[in-house]
Write a structure and sequence with these properties.
This protein is elongated. It has a seven-stranded antiparallel β-sheet with strand order 4-3-2-1-7-6-5. The protein is of the alpha+beta class.
């Protein structure tokens, strides 16, 4: 069964830092809170839209502070190993596990989106007869 509608939510993607990235000393001195959040999250949040489409999930960066290389990526549902949901005080965190990696998406009131995503991932695992 193929999904014909697209579900889109406003979201932020945690863009991970390279494993060898060191936060510069000047940032700890001039912007300690920013440096602490960067260190804590091991990445920075990119605002945009997260969509569940027929055969994949898609993130695209939106907003005023769009960089020349706007963040945009797609994952096929069959490439997703698992999805997890964590309800927070002010936001929800959706963790998408794929290929030994975890992609984190933060959104607000995303319970229904997560339910649809979990069902779509499960459905993509069902082998249809030829």
């Amino acid at each position: 069964m193929t999904r014909t509608t697209t579900i889109t939510i406003p979201a932020a993607w945690l863009n991970p830092l390279p494993s060898d990235f060191k936060i510069p000393t000047w940032k700890w001195i001039l912007l300690p809170t920013s440096a602490w959040m960067l260190s804590r999250n091991r990445g920075y949040w990119v605002g945009g839209e997260f969509s569940l489409r027929a055969d994949d999930v898609h993130f695209v960066q939106k907003g005023v502070l769009k960089s020349p290389r706007a963040a945009e990526w797609t994952l096929t549902l069959s490439a997703i190993d698992d999805v997890a949901f964590k309800k927070g005080f002010a936001s929800d965190l959706i963790a998408v596990h794929h290929g030994g990696q975890v992609t984190k998406i933060m959104s607000v009131r995303s319970d229904e989106f997560f339910t649809a995503l979990k069902a779509a991932v499960a459905l993509s695992r069902i082998a249809l007869p030829d």
